[in-house]
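hiii, so i know i said id send this last week but things got crazy w the move. better late than never?? heres the sequnce for the chain we talked about at the cafe, plus the structure i predicted for it. fair warning i was half asleep when i ran it
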Amino acid sequence: MEIQENMNIIYPITIEDLQNDAVKRIGRKLNGDELHTAIKCVEWGLSSITDITLKSAIDEAIGKNR
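okay and structure toks below
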């Protein structure tokens, strides 16, 4: 059971999510080249804030459960 719990996804972002947001923002879905660029930007953006987010989450969890 512990292995299965360790593999749970906390916050997924799908291509559908990205395309839906594009429709809201620009009124259409991204084409292939635009989608490729957007995916790379999302990956870079999320990887650059992951350490900060995880540290903050752990610090908050420890503080609230003392």
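btw The chain has a mean pLDDT of 91. thought thatd interest u
miss u guys!!
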